[in-house]
UniProtKB/TrEMBL annotation:
GO terms for biological process: peptide catabolic process; proteolysis. Its cofactor is Zn(2+). Residues 44-231 form the Aminopeptidase N-like N-terminal domain. Coiled coil: none annotated. It is found in: Endomembrane system. Binds 1 zinc ion per subunit. Transmembrane segments: none annotated. Its main location: membrane. Zn(2+) binds at residues 338, 342, 361. One of its GO terms (cellular component) is membrane. One of its GO terms (molecular function) is zinc ion binding. The active site is at 339 (proton acceptor). This is Aminopeptidase.
């Protein structure tokens, strides 16, 4: 092996005794034996025995780990991960726990690869097992990764400290030396030392607690199942919990600080329902005896799926009955559904390497919709799936997009894999696949996949094999397969007797970037089809050809049947018959592609919508609106045609298409209001208010109605007040004054509270009052509403003060800094203020939030997304050039440039069309 050769070259001249033990070897005689980022495969961890003692006073920890290892090649070296830890001692023991060396072993460090190498003078023999024992210490991290500290304030003002972990993707190595790659699955036996006023939590239940000295206790947890290091978790805190059991007897507990304990009730109900649903859907019992859900006060992402100990940002787990709006409740339900789906898909079966992280995240994202639809049908979660796919379309239509499966080696590259492509695009491709295969086949294939690969690691191909396997249950239980690698799955897209190689189809969606545009042309009884890559940016200079296997669906005016056709060539045709007047392609938007209707196709669609919009489902109507405006951005359709298309919205009663059409008009408004186009801004604002007058006037300032109605209320009234609609502003101001007079005790209707606060924040007294309540509130939901409102101030000094508070991290926590920057950038006064803040404080932001994190990505893309002028583009390019070394490591920098170029093109191409169109609508705005 490579390491054996390295070892010989380094120490071959050193004297050895009869047992092959080297002597008189100094650390200075050794050099680090491994040059690659990924660990060598010649040593495999089997079982970790981990002891940790965090000190919440000194904010440090010390510990030891004993790792049982299986040696598969003769070697003198053990190479594993460690980052920021001080290794105090290392030794190797044989299977009988006898020391192989009388002295502590040399430990070499390679900080750039976050690895340590431990040298054993005695050769570790292939086929034998050993124990690697390491003592270490470290500091509780100030950020959000590894073993880090978090704080919260009690009602008496006391600041309490807790210690929690977040290891995904590559920071378990910050808490203990380990083989920190997903394929190195092992069992973990954890012991945590704590004081009497604290509790400790880990993946498994506590098996035993002993007092080790006065006031210091050691919780000894049951041994875990085999799992990857990134799923290990432990917490030391003083939280309270609520507990219930699933129908199969799994204990479910939700933990939060004592002040927020009463906000845990809804999460407990959801978690129990979800666990019951997933055990039935996956047809595999949950393999652990308990599932804890913990609200962590400082948490960078939304949540984390640690096996048996899922951790959450407070806004992702806690629901305050007095301040949480319906959208907060939907969000909490979806996040819990996501993390509990991971307990099977991701934890039980794990991707081999981070290039396939979509197997975890895309699936869990999609299972949010399946699980919530089954357990909480009143939330109408299907109405949110379209927006998930629209978000993916926006990212994927840029030239700087990436394939779902992309190379990732460094921690920064790996961190960036947790993006819109892995989550949203992954979910939408799975949605398309589920409709392609049918629900039953999709579910049975997933069950087959999870059973076959339990406690193992997989690649894309393993999923496709499981989904296309046509074995009977009996064959499956014998672990047999009844198809060859080239055989395929029969489905109703293909003529009888034809077969499809599923992997070949799905590789076109996972191994190449981008989204297809299907152009439809009517020629007599035929539809002529052409597929191209859809781009909203300039055409790429590279000569790559993109071709997808597209499962097309369509409906016509002559039949309610959903027709299916698999398009595998650049061009194709479908016979629909002479009698057909219109054809709507991509029925209910189950497919991940856009559609352009050439010739008079869009006029036909507009006519259908204006004459009888209910002939199409609400999903089809929403899909048409989205496609039309995306085609405008890409230069395939004139803006006035898309605007004419949404003229039918006066008759629309469904929330989703209404919000989609309104959303595009709001988008245009926000673009031009930031360009100081005062006259045009006023015209468009007045048009929106007049056109949607009936919808605005129908809204009540209450929390009544269905989830859809309440969602519409929040969005419509928020925009109306932003457009300075007098009735809206007056009502909001009256509610805000009532709230002030009650000394902040009045419970505002939750669906309009954010709008009320936003209007109230426009004057000095209201803004100051809101900042005070923000500082003392114990409701994460209310704090989120108030923070948004504070960023609606028209005073640049106030906006700048908020940004400084966010950077300081005391009043506004660092976890909320990226959201705060985006909120300020969204303010008409804020784009340049926010961008200049990012430039000035770039180093501090990277230090707080980590270079490859989603927070930095959101800051880069979110602030620059507001720009639509060549001057702004040049400004941003100049800054990226000044941080070139970091910028080259980030995909977000190119995405930001692409977005700005798209905005510039849109503005230059469409602003005069918009001006002319509005002038033609005078009857609407008089």
């Amino acid at each position: 092996s490579l390491l054996s050769l390295v070892f010989v070259s380094l120490v071959g001249s050193q004297p050895a005794d009869d047992a092959g033990v080297l002597s008189n070897l100094a650390t200075s005689d050794l050099s680090f034996p491994w040059s690659r980022l990924r660990l060598p495969r010649y040593i495999v961890p089997l079982h970790y025995h981990l002891l940790l003692h965090p000190d919440l006073t000194s904010l440090s920890f010390q510990g030891s780990v004993q790792i049982q290892i299986d040696v598969q090649n003769n070697t003198n070296w053990v190479v594993l991960h460690s980052k920021g830890l001080k290794v105090l001692q290392a030794t190797v023991l044989d299977q009988d726990r006898a020391h192989l060396s009388e002295q502590a072993l040399p430990v070499l460090h390679n900080p750039s690869h976050e690895q340590i190498g431990i040298f054993s003078p005695r050769v570790l023999t292939s086929g034998h097992k050993y124990f690697l024992y390491i003592e270490f210490r470290g500091e509780l991290s100030e950020g959000f990764s590894g073993f880090y500290r978090s704080t919260y304030r009690t009602r008496t003002g006391e600041v309490r400290i807790l210690a929690s972990t977040h290891f995904e993707p590559t920071t378990a190595r910050m808490a203990f030396p380990c083989f920190d790659e997903p394929s190195f699955k092992a069992n973990f036996s954890v012991r945590i030392r704590r004081t009497s006023e604290h509790i400790s939590l880990s993946n498994m239940p506590v098996a035993n607690t002993v007092e080790v000295q006065n006031g210091l206790f050691e919780d000894q947890f049951e041994a875990s199942v085999k799992m990857s290091t990134y799923l290990v978790a432990f917490i030391v805190c003083d939280f309270k919990s609520v507990t219930a059991k699933t129908s199969s007897g799994v204990q479910v507990s939700v933990y939060a600080s004592a002040e927020k304990w009463l906000q845990t009730t809804y999460a407990l109900e959801v978690a129990v329902k979800m666990m019951d649903f997933y055990e039935k859907y996956f047809d595999i019992p949950y393999p652990l005896p308990k599932q804890d859900l913990v609200a962590i006060p400082d948490f960078q992402s939304g949540a984390m799926e640690n096996w048996g100990l899922t951790t959450y940002r407070e806004t992702s787990l806690l629901v305050d009955p007095h301040t949480s709006c319906v959208s907060d409740k939907v969000w909490v339900t979806m996040v819990i559904g996501h993390e509990l789906a991971h307990q099977w898909f991701g934890n039980l079966v794990t991707m081999e390497w981070w290039n396939d992280i979509w197997l975890n995240e895309g699936f869990a994202k999609y299972m949010e919709f399946i699980s919530v639809e089954a357990t909480y049908p009143d939330l109408r979660i299907d109405e949110y799936l379209l927006e998930t796919c629209f978000a993916a379309f926006g990212y994927d239509s840029l030239n700087s997009s990436r394939p779902i499966c992309s190379p990732a080696e460094t921690p920064t590259q790996i961190e960036q894999m947790f993006d819109t492509i892995s989550y949203e695009k992954g979910a939408c491709v799975l949605h398309m696949l589920r409709h392609f295969l049918t629900d039953e086949v999709f579910q049975s294939g997933i069950v087959r996949y999870l059973r076959k690969f339990s406690y193992r690691n997989t690649h894309n191909q393993d999923l496709w094999d499981s989904l296309s396997n046509t074995c009977s249950e009996e064959d499956f239980m014998r672990a047999e397969y009844c198809y060859s690698g080239k055989q395929a799955f029969r489905n109703n897209y293909l003529p009888s007797g034809d077969h499809l190689h599923l992997a070949a189809m799905m590789n076109t969606w996972t191994l190449q970037k981008g989204i297809p545009l299907v152009t439809v042309t009517r020629r007599g009884p035929y539809l002529l089809l052409r597929q191209d890559r859809f781009l909203t940016t300039e055409r790429p200079t590279d000569p790559l050809c993109f071709l997808w296997h597209i499962p097309l669906t369509y409906r016509t005016d002559t039949s309610g049947t959903i027709h299916r056709h698999l398009m595998t060539a650049p061009t194709d045709s479908i016979y629909v018959g002479e009698a057909v007047d219109w054809v709507k392609v991509n029925t209910d938007m189950t497919g991940y592609y856009l559609v352009h209707y050439e010739d008079d196709g869009w006029e036909k669609m507009a006519k259908v919508l204006s004459e009888n919009h209910t002939a199409l489902s609400y999903k089809d109507r929403t899909h048409l609106i989205h496609n039309a405006f995306q085609l405008v951005t890409a230069g395939h359709l004139k803006l006035n045609k898309a605007l004419d298309l949404i003229g039918y919205l006066r008759s629309e009663t469904h929330t989703v298409p209404l919000l989609k059409g309104l959303g595009y008009l709001e988008l245009f408004y926000r673009i031009i209001e930031k360009r100081n186009e005062t006259v045009l801004t006023n015209k468009l604002g007045l048009y929106i208010l007049r056109f949607f007058r009936a919808v605005i006037d129908q809204q009540t300032w209450t929390d009544s109605g269905s989830v859809s109605e309440r969602r519409l209320r929040s969005e419509v009234l928020s925009l109306a007040c932003h457009l300075n609609d007098p009735p809206c502003v007056q009502r909001a101001r009256r509610n805000f004054n009532d709230w002030l007079l009650s000394n902040y005790t009045l419970n505002l209707p939750t669906d309009v509270a954010e709008t009320v606060y936003s209007v109230g924040a426009k004057d000095d007294h209201g803004w100051t009052s809101l900042l005070h309540v923000y500082n003392v509130s114990f409701s994460a939901a209310q704090k989120g509403q108030i923070l948004f409102a504070l960023t609606c101030s028209t005073d640049p000094n106030k906006l700048h003060r908020l940004l400084e508070l966010g950077l300081e991290g005391k009043v506004i926590r660092s976890q909320d800094l990226s959201s705060l920057v985006l909120m300020v950038a969204r303010n008409p006064q804020g784009p340049h203020l926010a961008w200049n803040f990012v430039k000035k404080n770039w180093d501090a932001l990277v230090q707080k939030l980590q270079l490859g994190s989603g927070s930095i990505r959101n800051i880069i893309i979110g602030t620059t997304r507001q720009f639509s002028s060549p001057e702004d583009l040049a400004n941003v390019q100049m800054f990226f050039e000044s941080i070139k070394e970091q910028a080259l490591q980030l995909r977000a920098t190119q995405l930001a440039l692409d977005n700005m170029q798209k905005n510039i093109r849109w503005y230059e191409t469409n602003i005069e069309t918009l001006r002319t169109w509005l002038d033609q609508q005078k009857k609407e705005i008089t």
